Amino acid sequence: MRAAGTSGHSAGHDPFDEGGTSILRQPMAVWATTGASVVAFMGIGLVDPILPSIAQGLHASNSQVSLLFTSYFLITAVAMLVTGFVSSRIGGRRTLLAGLALVVVFAALSGTSSSVGELVGFRAGWGLGNALFVSTSLAVIVGAANPMGASRSDSARGGGGRRAGSAAAILLYESALGLGMACGPLLGAVLGDMKWRYPFFGTAVLMAVGFVAITAFLKEQPRPARKTSVLDPVKALGHGGLASTAVSAFFYNYAFFTVLAFTPFVLDMSPYKSGGVFFAWGVLLAVFSVLVAPRLQERFGSLKVLGGSLVLLAADLVVLGYGNHATAIVCTILSGAFIGLNNTVFTELALGVSDAPRPVASAGYNFVRWFAAAAAPFLAPKIEEWTDVHVPFVVAALAALAGAAIVAVRRRALTVRAHDLEPRHATEDGVSAFAG
């Protein structure tokens, strides 16, 4: 057993040089899946800079337009119960292609919407496709990367080569996550400045390219020996440590998606300017998730990093809510750093704190926390309507503090088992706890 506050990284660890493994030494199947993953993650923040434009174009209120996030993540949460069920029966490649096909169809339909109700419904279908794709893509990338991502010396050691290749592939996946989160608002701004419908069509085209690339380059991956039940993720939540992680992440995600879905209305900027703000936010998220978090965990321990980051996020949200416009911009960008740290540590806890198979544990964890991602975009504008523009950020800050309190109270239950820490941020047979 090893406390979650310790770390498997050595001092001066270079996350892009896992045991002599080059992150760039990957087969085309890995690159095809990774490229599609970038676009899939872009879809999360794509609508950020064009939310005011959509509201104007469809004559909708802020709370109505925010349902674009609510429908997307509500379906994503429920889909967590079925993605493992599906992929363990039809295989990873077919699951990826099914998810991509759904995203292509529903992203294109989103661009044709004539009412906010239609757009919300199409985003729900998009969320189902994205859940199927994202929940499977990491396992497929890792499977396709073995053992080609390893150095010759690693390959000679057999299992060590597979682990090194997997670690490089996982870092590639996490880099894709950060790149997608950063570039989504930028693409939304560039295309949305011309017309709010264009980002949806652009996403459909990019995902169609990903569909063709995966069809051409990715072979079917081995299926798991045991088929996953729909109820397995729910049963996994019977473990106290995993349940504590999921509930803490629920409150954290409420704060996270208040920033992502409500702040664009508060900033009230042009698509280009709003896209620039959220691009900088995404860059900080990526850098702190992949590069900074492991070093802070090495020095201070995971739970201290998580608790401290949640408290700092709460403080940042209060200043964002009560500051002037320039302060709100700075705090929005700065929140990306805290979100990046939290994503990394929550991922480690979700994947290693229980005895459940890691894909099952991740699915149960995401089933709980994505409900907060669905709730925040709906509740924040409603709270503003009932009170004023400051209170939604106060509520989000209190949610972040609630997450930190759970970490503090349940710290003994949040123990990561040592043999689950290779690779660090995810697992060879699992999925990203951030993405599902």
H/E series: EEEHHHHHHHHHHHHHHHHE
Would you tell me the structural class of the helices and strands? mainly alpha
Low-confidence stretches: 1-12, 147-162, 418-436
The CATH superfamily of the largest domain is: MFS general substrate transporter like domains
Instruction: Report how far apart the termini are.
Output: 26 Å
Just name the CATH architecture of the largest domain. Up-down Bundle
- Count of distinct strands: 4
Helix content: over 70%
Number of helices: 16
Rg over CA atoms, rounded to whole Å, is: 20 Å
Our estimate of the beta-strand percent is under 5%
Q: How is the main sheet built?
A: 2 strands, antiparallel
CATH class of the largest domain: Mainly Alpha
Q: Under CATH, the topology of the largest domain is which?
A: Growth Hormone, Chain: A
Shape: globular
pLDDT averaged residue by residue: 81
Total separate domains: 2
**Main sheet: which strands, in order across?**
1-4
Question: What does this 3D model show about the protein?
Answer:
The chain is mainly alpha-helical and 436 residues long. The chain has 2 domains: 29-230, Growth Hormone, Chain: A (Up-down Bundle); 231-415, Up-down Bundle (Growth Hormone, Chain: A), CATH 1.20.1250. 74% of the residues lie in helices and 2% in strands. The strands form 2 sheets. Strands 1-4 form a two-stranded antiparallel ribbon. The chain has a two-stranded antiparallel sheet with strand order 2-3. The two termini are 26 Å apart. Mean pLDDT is 81; it is low at 1-12, 147-162 and 418-436.
